[in-house]
Every structure is written in structure tokens, then in C-alpha cells.
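The instructor's notes for this session suggest beginning with a concrete chain rather than abstract definitions. Hand out the sequence below and ask the class to guess, before any prediction is shown, which regions might be ordered.
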Amino acid sequence: MNGILAIYRKEMIQYFRSPIAYFVVSVFLLGTGYFFLYNVFSTGIGTMNETFRNMGLLLITLIPLVTMRLFSGEYTGRTMELLTTLPLKTWEIVLGKYLGALTILLVMTMATGINLIPLYLFGNPETKTILSGYIGFILMGMACLAIGQFFSSLTQNQIVAALITIPVLLAFWFVGHLQAYQNSPGLRELFGYLSFSLHFSDFIRGLLRSEAVAFYLAVVAVALTLNTSYLQWRR
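After discussion, reveal the predicted structure:
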């Protein structure tokens, strides 16, 4: 546990010593605020449904900026060798870095709570639906972070890590659209199951489905396991 905390503290210091965290959080909040105002005033309906959908897509485009430096930065800074020689297990390094990135995600999520103030002052939103949407948002963000961190471990170039992560995350987001072009029920079910957006839509509607929760957590587990296995192999 001490090893995980040491890596976690190191990551948080690096995030807030660089402009990346401030840039990502600022862009996300500006984008979320714009979508919230546009959706509420254009529809006249005091809900977060459309805003959550926009938040999900915006998150997918910004997550690679959070994860691209996690391991690529260690390679280019020639500090990866130091990390691997410390008395730390590989999974402790992976988990410590992941928790650091997850903290940034939670900060971004909590900061969007400012949008709820006018919603509750001038509307009558469904609290359970909003909570469900936020749970789905965090779960999807956790899956995106794990995928981005894995790709960051595969290359020494941070830009390459981001450029690989973005299309992969977009593919997970849009893969559900391929259902309409499939004649096979099995393929339609597979594409639907792999779709980040379709699972997220359930949460937005207030449906806390165990299948969707298990899917996102499974993606996290698989990506972090692959991350750990690859780094162990490099060692």
C-alpha cells in the first residue's frame, strides 16, 4: 500500500506542476457549461440528459491528454529505469498511476456540479436520474483512463500515445452504430455490448444495470492487467 501511495503522490505533484491538468479541467468545464446552457435553453427542459451525452463525448477526446504522459513521460524522461529498480511491484506502479489519473477525473466530475445549482433553483430535476448519470460517467471515465494508460505504456512518444488512444476510444463510443448494418443477431448483440455510448445511455435514463457496471469494470480490469503484464515483460 505504501508503494501505491508513493506513486500516487508523485503523479499528483506532476499533474499540478504541469499545465496539463489545468488545461484539461478548464476545457472540460467550459465545454460542459456551454453544452448545459445550450441544451437547457434550446429545449426548455431542465434535465441533464443531453448534457451527459455531450460530457461523455467530450471526455473521450480529453482523456488521452491525461493519460498520454503516464508511462511515455517516464520513458522520455529516463525515469522508468529508476521506477523499475525501486522495491515496488509492477502492479503497484500501475495502480498508483491509475489512481492519480482517476483523481483528475473525479475533480472534473465534481466541478460540473456547478451546473446543478440553476437546475435545482429553477427546475425540478430527478435526483436519482442525475446520480445515475454521474455514476455512469465516472465508470466510463475509469474505463477510458485504463485504456489510455495501457497505450501510454506501449510507446515512448506522448503524442503517439494520445493519437492511438483517441481513435480506440471513439471506436468504443461509436461501435454501437454498426448494429444497424448487421444481419447476424450475434454481431448486433456484440457491437451493442461493446458500445460505451449505449451502456452510458442506460445510466443517463436512470437505469443502473449490473451488466453495464460489470462491462466498464471488466474493461478497467483487462486494460490494467495488460498494462501490468507488458511492464513486467519489459522488466
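Then share the key points. Residues 2-234 form one domain. The mean pLDDT is 87.
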